[in-house]
Amino acid sequence: MSTIQNSIDVILKQGMLPLYFNADENKSVAILKTLYNVGIRAVEYTSRGPEALANFNKMIEVRNAELPGMLLGIGTIKNLAQAETYYLAGADFFISPGFVPEIATFLIGKKALYAPGCMTPTEIIAAENAGVKFIKLFPGNILGPDFMSGIRDVFPDLTFMPTGGVDTTRQSIETWFNAGVSAVGMGSKLISKEVMQYEAYETIEKETKRVLDLIEAIRN
Fold it and tell me: What is the pTM for the complete model shown?
């Protein structure tokens, strides 16, 4: 299982974190393989349906057998029981829509990355004081890059990643990076319901490669 720093390093190296959920196990696995083939080495699978745990277990099985070096994290974790369940399932990192102190205590104790969603300085301070190193700015479309610019100097030791509303355009991604984030979370703007419905894996591959190239160009 990945350590906290290793998980952060892998996410920051690719500069973006793809996230998705699909009720269909086969589609969930196929998307994971597609992302791996284009160079992604950290993926967030969101726990947003009754099928999530069974799908995640299958994805871990496939990852272990076929996708060396891939970190598989779980998102939309809202309580300690969920965190414990997915820790036992083998999740490499954990992401919440909000900050949950008991989850932070549990996962930091296990040396597993916990990235809580925060949208106020008060929440970020609480997370930092609990030992959190990686903050998910959520929802990104409400907060905007100006929020990141405004708090950057107050939290020099934290790593930030916005999720929600980050477009796949150069302007959107570049504005966020210029504001001070170290990665961007990419959900439906990258892996849409329509693309999943029609199993357009080639589209996911092309778009992901394009975004990775964009981020590399922006950071260089």
Answer: 0.96
